[in-house]
Amino acid sequence: MIVNTKKRIPNATMKRLPLYYRYFKQAEEAATDRVSSREISEALDIDSATIRRDFSYFGELGRKGYGYNVKSLLNFFMEHIQGTDKKNIVLVGVGNLGSALLNYKFNNLSDKMNVVAGLDSNEELIGRKINDVVVHHESELEDIIKKEKVEVAILTLPVSASQEMAERLVDAGVKGILNFTPTRLDLDKNIYVHNIDLGVELQALFFYMKNL
């Protein structure tokens, strides 16, 4: 397998990579040895040409007439896309959304991530355990990030508190933030922020439904 990961990868391709990883993981669990771009296309509802183009950014991952070796591709995604180390994560803001996220079963990512703590300022939540994750007071943020070597934070705070908390997370050593608030965070360009605005996503859904 010839791999070239030095090309600039489009954002649209990057967003599809977790879907490919999950597909190959499920194929491995089903004892499937190899798959074609057509089979991937039918399973994920992604055009075959798009799949081949996405994979081309990383070199020769498959062979014409043979398809893609499931084990090889799964190992590739684990090593070059997700990395081999497990990321420690904190969730900041244990309200309704934050609690729901802590209760979510990240089964497909259990070997890649570990939520080490929830953080909140609500005294009634401090000390509670949600899905085996203990909620700490936000005053402990810096100590927890340092002790647990946390690199990633999930932010589910009110808009008014998001920017200040994001800056605090970065100062404490966090390298990436999954932002569930409508706020567009103004941070150093070396900090990666992935925004998930549920309002925007719903509007997009309504638009696609209307234009089917």
TrEMBL record:
GO cellular component, one term: cytoplasm
Domain CoA-binding: start-end pairs: 83-184
Record: residues binding NAD(+): 93-98
DNA-binding region ranges: 19-58
Chaperone among keywords: no
InterPro entries documented for this protein: CoA-bd, NAD(P)-bd_dom_sf, Rex_bacilli-type, Rex_DNA-bd_C_dom, Tscrpt_rep_Rex, WH-like_DNA-bd_sf, WH_DNA-bd_sf
Gene Ontology BP terms: negative regulation of DNA-templated transcription; response to redox state
GO molecular function, one term: DNA-binding transcription factor activity
Keywords of this entry: Cytoplasm, DNA-binding, NAD, Repressor, Transcription, Transcription regulation
Compartment(s) of residence: Cytoplasm
Coiled-coil residue windows: none
Chief site of localization: cytoplasm
Annotated function: Modulates transcription in response to changes in cellular NADH/NAD(+) redox state.
Subunit structure: Homodimer.
Family named by the database record: Belongs to the transcriptional regulatory Rex family.
Record protein name field: Redox-sensing transcriptional repressor Rex
Gene expressing this chain: rex
